[in-house]
Amino acid sequence: MFNKIIKRGSRAPGPKAESAGLASDGEAAVSVNHASGPAAAAPQIEPLPLLRDVPAPERPALALRKLRICAEVFDFSDAVESAREKEAKRQTLLELVDFVQSGSGRLTEQVQEQLARTVAVNIFRTLPPASHENTGAEPTDPEEEDPYLDPAWPHLQLVYELLLRYVVSSDTEAKVAKRYIDHSFVLRLLDLFDSEDPREREYLKTILHRIYGKFMVHRPFIRKAINNIFYRFIFETERYRGTGELLEILGSVINGFALPMKEEHKLFLVRALIPLHKPKHLAMYHQQLSYCIVQFVEKDFKLADTVIRGLLKYWPVTNYQKEVLFLGELEEVLEVTQPAEFQRCMVPLFKQIARCLSSSHFQVAERALFLWNNDHIISLIAQNRSVILPILFEALEKNIQGHWNQAIHGLTANVRKMFFDMDSHLFEECQQQHLDKEEKAKYLEEQRESAWRIIEAAIQSKASEDMVLAN
């Protein structure tokens, strides 16, 4: 019952008032009849002829009337209530989708305005709160939540399809349509990306991508709006369901960036994309994020150092699932990294890789060792082995001597052999340095233990003297 009240309260305000108000422009009255009296019944939808059955000059006026009919919003939390009217609306929406898609009638400006208004009335609504907000329970992991399926989706899908067909239609001129698909409309579309229903987010992704492609005037605004959404997600809420879908759009956008890349785009990488590695639910959108990051490096190889240092900045400390994701992304970035950029960041990079090699969690150590399966990365390492091997040698020896997982032993042995084959002289030098370091550490430990024994003996001697004096 509470959910029903919430959903009723979230409907767009005043569809009846809006429908009535739209009939004052000289067109035929809206074909929706409302019952009067205290026990008002559901709105009655008056049958209208099919668009294909009327002459072409009359179709715009008829389409306008049908769009006004579809501006009526129903409550879908009760499947029985107004069932006949809902089905009539669904059939009308199907007909309008076909009308816009087929191009069988010119879309006048009045029709376009009403189409945008009808779409807005249906889709722009307050989204239902997350389940934990209703019950007061602790927030659950978004990765473990069952997807919410909106009961109104059979109608919402047709409304989204109508909007999509309008945007992609060759009859839709951007300079006219931008009056109705304006900044406010785009912002409200972006708000809907937080919908729990994955089907709705998929439609929104396709539509926003098409709007970005068709309305060049909106492009800077859309990028800025997405920027702001990411900032709020990273630094405030850490809950936003549409991050993956927005990143999919951006992957295509980044692919189309012209060279040399604008400073605005580089700032977007540094201030929004790289910090998106910070939230704990990274796994939900990591694939799309990784694609965007790699696209930047492919476009401008000089960004490799910036990206790698950014990954190191947000490297997880206690979350092994995120570490595995970071290592996978790191491999993709290194695969498109040039030697000069690699040399700029290789010392901090391989210090982190050494820590991963020594990880007690075998999946982290294993994923780090898999880097040596990549020929390009091996080539970069071989060119800079005199710097990299001394950093890694201790971690490799630790794995050989004491890692609990047998598979890690085998992979580490392969990497050690690879380094030995690259430069046996350097390998032996590192081995000797490691032995000397262990001997020194052993000597210092013995010195420490000896010092403690002397201190303990002095304390016991003093205690004995005090006892003698006391007696």
Q: How does the SSE layout of this entry go?
A:
Elements: H1 2-9, H2 15-21, E1 32-33, E2 44-45, H3 59-69, H4 83-102, H5 109-123, H6 131-135, H7 153-168, H8 174-177, H9 183-192, H10 198-214, H11 219-237, H12 243-255, H13 263-273, H14 286-299, H15 304-313, H16 320-335, H17 339-357, H18 362-369, H19 375-383, H20 385-402, H21 406-422, H22 424-470
Antiparallel strand pairs: 1-2
How would you explain this protein's 3D organization?
The protein is 67% helix and 1% strand. The chain has a two-stranded antiparallel sheet. The protein has 471 residues and is mainly alpha-helical. The protein has helices spanning 2-9, 15-21, 59-69, 83-102, 109-123, 131-135, 153-168, 174-177, 183-192, 198-214, 219-237, 243-255, 263-273, 286-299, 304-313, 320-335, 339-357, 362-369, 375-383, 385-402, 406-422, 424-470; strands at 32-33, 44-45. Mean pLDDT is 86; it is low at 1-42.
Offer a concise description of the structure.
This protein is mostly helical and 471 residues long. 67% of the residues lie in helices and 1% in strands. The chain has 22 helices and two strands.
